[in-house]
Amino acid sequence: MDQNNNAHRLALAEQAVETLNRYTHFHSNYQVSFTMADPDEKGLPRINAKFERFDGVPFAESTVPMDQKYTHLKDQTVAIRLFFFPMMKAEFDETEANQFDVVDFDYAAIVGYGKDAEGNYVMKALYFPPTDALIAGHKPDEDGVWRSIRVPTYHMHKLSIDPRQTFSRHLYLAERFSEALEYQYDKYGFFFSNPEG
Question: Among 181, 139, 151, 21, which Cα is nearest to 82's?
Answer without folding.
Answer: 151
